Amino acid sequence: MYDIIHVVSGLLLGASSISLFARVGGGIFTKAADVGADLVGKVEACIPEDDSRNPAVIADNVGDNVGDIAGMGADLCELYLGSIISTMILGAAAMLALSNQNIGLLIGAMLPFLFSALSMLAVGRAAHEIVLEVRRQFKANPCIMKGTEDPDYERCISISTSSAIHEMILPGLIAIVAPLFIGLLLGKEALGGLLVGSIGAGVMLALTMVNAGGAWDNAKKYIELGFFGGKGSAAHKAGVTGDTVGDPFKDTSRSSTKYLAQTDGNCGSGICTVVFVNSIHFLFLKCRLPVF
């Protein structure tokens, strides 16, 4: 029985980790392509959104599938496993005491901000590479803007893929290593504080991000309806630029904060399960009771 609990705890942690990487990597991929395509296409070249002349438009469409479909699939798998396995390890939660957890609480409250900052910076770096590539193609081949030749879509897809893979490593490691480090080094009270701080601060930060990001996005759409000069105006260019911050704010960093809390919780549950089960196992052996 104890071996089974250890195995399923590891299974849940693995599923949670894959879900985190899929969502963070997918968010970086899609928003880097989206931001790069909008900045050069809409603002500089004044071409419509999703115009086939934009070298980053296919990468943007691929990114939607990576972030929304593949990421959602991994998320559903993690939620399904979590709902089943959590019932098996529910008793481990009793191991978390609420006293002397100030250090863990402080570290936990800092994690969502660090995690979100890293994901925003990752999108910014990846989008910058996309912007440079789209500009290069427009400059090197004037036939692209004339519509007589297709741009090199694969180059932008390759940039987004490579950036997403590399940039998701550090945030993902932080989400996994932080609860393990705090729990094993400072004990169960600090681990409990980290989980409480991470979830509490993460909820408030996520609400801020989804509202602020939505405001940037809707401001752009409002201008595109014809207000303040409509499409092509200075206000529209400013709105598009603002949306390049709002999109990763609400779609990458905000959603990543959710998966940070899930992964931290599952890592914490895994640690508690190991401690709890090993303690019970030792007690059974000490009292010479039958172990199943």
Observed structural traits:
83% helix; 292 residues; 8 helices; 0% strand; mainly alpha; elongated
Q: Could you report the average pLDDT, rounded to the nearest whole number?
A: 79
Structural class: mainly alpha
Distance between the termini: 6 Å
Tell me the series of helices and strands, N- to C-terminal.
Answer: HHHHHHHH
What level of helicity do the residues show? Answer: over 70%
Report the uncertain regions: none
The global form is elongated
- The number of domains is 1
Question: How many strand elements?
Answer: 0
Radius of gyration: 23 Å
Give a verbal description of the structure.
The structure is a single chain. It is built from eight helices and no strands. It has one domain (2-286). It has 292 residues and is mainly alpha-helical. It is elongated, with a radius of gyration of 23 Å. Helix 2 (57-88) packs parallel to helix 5 (153-167).
In short:
With 292 residues, the chain is mainly α. The chain has 8 helices and no strands.
Q: What is the fold's blueprint, element by element?
A:
Layout: H1 2-44, H2 57-88, H3 102-140, H4 143-146, H5 153-167, H6 169-186, H7 188-224, H8 234-286
Helix pairs in contact: 1-2, 1-3, 1-5, 1-6, 1-8, 2-5, 3-5, 3-6, 3-7, 3-8, 6-7, 6-8, 7-8
